[in-house]
Amino acid sequence: MFADILGFTALTEGLAKRGAEGVEKITQILNTYFSLLIDIVHSNGGDVIKFAGDALLALWDASDDDLLLSTCKAASCALRIQEELSSMTSQDGVKLSLRISVTCGDLHIGIMGGNNGRWESFLTGKPLREAGVACENSLPGDVMISSDAQSLLESISVSVLSSGGFFHLKSISARPESMQDLDDYMFEDVPAKLKNFIPVECQARIDAGQLGWLNELRRVTVVFVNLPNMNENVSMVEAQQIFIDLQDILHKYGGSLNKLSVDDKGISLLAGFGMPSMTHGNDAARAVLAALQMHRHVSMAQWRCSIGIATGKVFIGIIGSEQRCEYTMIGDAVNFSARLMHRARGKILCDTSTKKVCKEAVIFGEPLVETIKGKLWPVIRQQKVTTGSKVNCSGSMIGRKEEREVLAQMASDIAMQKENVNKIIFVGEAGLGKTRLATEFLKIGKERGLNCFLASADEVQISTPFHPWRSIFQHILGVDEFGMAGNEFNRRYSDSGFKADHQAMLKEKLTVMGLSEAFVKLTPLLDSVLSIGLEDNQRTRKMRGEIRAKNTQKFLCEILRLYCMSTSFVLVVDDGQWFDSMSWALISLVSKIVPTFHVVLFTRPMPSPQPTEFKNFEMTCTRYVLQSMTDEDCVQLVVQILGVDKLPLAIEDLIRDRAQGSPLFSSELALSLRESLNASGENLSSQLDELDLSNFTVSDTIEGLITSRIDRLTASQQLTLKVASVIGREFDFLLLIQIHPTENESSIESDLDVLRYHELITPCRNGRETSYIFKHAAIQEISYSLLPESRKIELHSRVVEVLELQHGNVHITLHPILAQHCEKAKIWDKALRYLSSSGGEALRNRAHIEAIDWFKRALHAQTLSSAMTTEERASLYQKLGEAQFLTGDFHSCQLSFKQALELVGRAIPSSRHGYWLGCVKAAVEFVLIWLFPRLWRRGTKEGYLHLIQIYERLFHFYYYLGNPLKALYFTLQMLKVSVLKEATTCRRLSFTSMLGLALQVFGMRSISSWVIKQSLEGINAQSDVSSQAKILLWGGVHKFSLGRTDESAVLFKQSLEFGRRIGDQRTVDEVSFNYGLQKYMLNQYECAKLWAQKIRTSTEKRNNWQGELWGLCLEIACEVRLERLSRDALLSLLSRLADHLRFSNRAIPSDTLLGMSVMAMGWLKVGERTKALACCSTVGAILRDYRPVSIHTSWALMTLSGVVKRLQEGEEGSREELQELKRSIELVLRRSLRNFQILTMRKEAVEKC
């Protein structure tokens, strides 16, 4: 019986696009289907003999039974399979169906091969050929039987003659009784001779008891060979000779024969290059060369041969069920190589991936671009082999003479206490030796007596604020987090008495260092860095968000300042590309304040867009770019690693040709040489001299090199390495033991010793004896990639379970790590909890970029979790919007806030009419709530607090956007909810002042002034400093807009004082911009420029896009008026503003209008009329759909009107467009001049000038 699954190819192609996860999903679906098929076959007395991709072959032995009875059993089994499985649908919605054929007669069962004791079984005969043809002539859901089977079943079945001489079986009247399942052999019970039929790559792991760990995902070159004329008519002797010759060729080139099949299309072989324990790095080239030799050998024997080759990531492992299974390969590369084989027609075809990696070894013909079963892929036809010249690559690495001289000079300057020692940045791609240079500088620093600290970042901890600083501050403050081992520490960590003692010791240490009492009271803030469970006190408990982060930064900076008073401080940063934004901000801050603080940074090129904090720091540094190292340096590095005096010339040539200037590649090549020879010292030198390089190949890629090194390990060592990679680049021995499948401590410890010897891992630098780190991130990543998804999920789940069990009430600092593992384990309920907590902590510590990432991931997790209520989802969107607002990303925050409001049933109106009705309704409800508070249904105070925060942020958004109606709507909503929440009087007064601003833009100046006056008079007796700062800010803006600049200046200064006192940087920035704008309006350009520079400095540190735009615009406007800046300097500012607008998706219309108006003025000043005109065109397009009414946009348009007037004087072709723009500007300004008296004063002053 031959059963072919239909629809699986379409399913495979769809899932293959998902990468490794999709490949494993294919395997899971296939195993599920095969398990059901195998159960039915066994229950009907059959035995599954072969798997062929998505097909299955089963036999019913009739040697001791009546042929009629066996055929009846097979036919009954086929009908039952169609009844139970004919319309099975996969989880992805793809319908799977079957076509089945049943034949009977004599089959020949034999074995072929024997090369290195490896045998393959095969079946051949008329029934097998008929089964394949019958399936091809059937439809989904059919059971086709041969004429011989029909003759036997004629009296007990109903069948219809079909095409090809086969019969469509409809039913059978006398089904045999189900038979018991056949006895199954377990691998442990397989006789020794039968092991010769098991692929060699499986043997070691089976012997090690790792049957469940055979599955892997790895890059393999697949070779399909077909001999179409070789069938049962060929003599067995001749077939055996051809087959063993092909086995010899495959073995010679390092391939592994995976499958032999015989059908109506002849004999087919499936082989893989790069299989487990058989990786050579250049496997694609080996596969092509093996194919050439096989094709040549078979052709010389006068047989036709077609070969298809494809390279890609495939699943390698077990398919089937516990009763019957097979070790095979599944993936797109397998399917495509089979298609190429069928299309080859006596030639060799390969895909572009194979050609790309072996083009130096083989010359290919012109590509044949054809449709292959629905795929338009270029097909490459091989023609001949060449020994063409090798490509010489310039190199780089061990020497690094210039870089070491720079580092040595810097160390000497610091040691001699020279002033203005430059900070240094080394930038280089992965594998160029940055970590080695960092180690070299630490050595130089130690020799010079410098106080050097290493801050090594971790990709897993990239969203954890201050993580690279943790070990440094633990050392400075005498806090040894790892001074206690394992479970003892975990028990004490959660002990409140221990925490209190620790906090008391910290306070004493801080006092001894000379910190003031005010700072000592902020000791709990240090927990975001130290991670030792410090609990908030009454003072720090009130600090939130920006205020908390600002105070934490100041505290850390003060500690470093005092520490550096008696000694220099050299910070060596490794893997800077994984630094979090808070760590960058701290480096920038300390660099400006502490003169004896020095930085040496090693990083990969930063991703675009670069973190603002890094850009600010980079501007103060000397930057060096690491290049590839020289050929001689590559050779010397290999000599050093091998511990020999010199290398044979042939090996030196190999290094020059293949290392490509990569230190990592060179070192991996050296280790690969050492491990393959398994020798050292003089013995190694002699073996190197005798080494036949024709039998030693090196990968073309680092991935191939590392994989080949991993494959040389024992099965136990490979498993330990893979399990450790799940924990992360850095892993703890105690945790590894608890998640390892064997849990054999001595065996795991022995494995780690071997891994250390092979330089795959090394003891960690953090001082823990039980902690290890992968020698390079690439080793961890490649080891991890070899695990199938199901094993990754299992191990990540185990990590979560162990960490939670160890730590009981898990401290907040572990939440980011647990969140990562929960995500990868797909434990979405826990992932959601830890992601939300990590986001909240990041927001609390002012790490806004990291907070956005955490909350977005949490929102993704909640779509896959059932553990979140609607209110909790709304809270997540609110926090995400808050983080986006604080980075100036107004577009995104608006969408997040709207989503939050919709979730709690407070959808925002969709039309202008709806906003008017909403304003009226909110005003009426406010009065009713005020008059009859007890009759109003109240929600939770926390829910109302979230609503107030959302409404307040949306007011800000629409106020600066210049949309008075929406600003008024959200102000009234704020006031209404504040009464329900029973907010403090000062808080309500803050909202009332916002209402006054909203009323002003409607022309209600008298009412607006009265409302603002009431707000200002009500703050005297209040203690809510944050609300007072906002009331004074809005009061100042109101007075400023009315032209009462003396009064507004007083209010602005008071607001600044309150904002700085509590660390509310957003309020400080808004006050600074408005105060600076006021100075500009009063022609005090020098003073306005200083305020603009303050805004830029502040907002660049915090990655606040809008604030940085304000500062740039105001500074450029001042420089144009002052006329002191050189043309080049002004051009630099204009280019920066242009880039700021061009490369951000955060700009709202009012921001774009402001930026373009100021740029137009600047471009005109430097004589770039064309660019000025382009800016005017952009503003004109905005004004067609948007009529802003705010003092800031009105100032920008007033500035632009002067530019338009000057442009009209000389632009003949654009006068009509400029005239239209002028009318639009006048229309907007006409309304603004009525509402904002300061604009009238400014206009008169400009006209007078």
TrEMBL record:
Residues 1-122, 240-341 form the Guanylate cyclase domain. Pfam families: AAA_16, Guanylate_cyc. GO terms for cellular component: chloroplast. Keywords: ATP-binding, Nucleotide-binding. It comes from the Eukaryota. The keyword Nucleotide-binding applies. GO terms for biological process: cyclic nucleotide biosynthetic process; intracellular signal transduction. One of its GO terms (molecular function) is ATP binding. It is found in: Plastid, Chloroplast. InterPro entries: A/G_cyclase, AAA_16, Nucleotide_cyclase, P-loop_NTPase, TPR-like_helical_dom_sf. This is Guanylate cyclase domain-containing protein. It comes from Guillardia theta (strain CCMP2712).
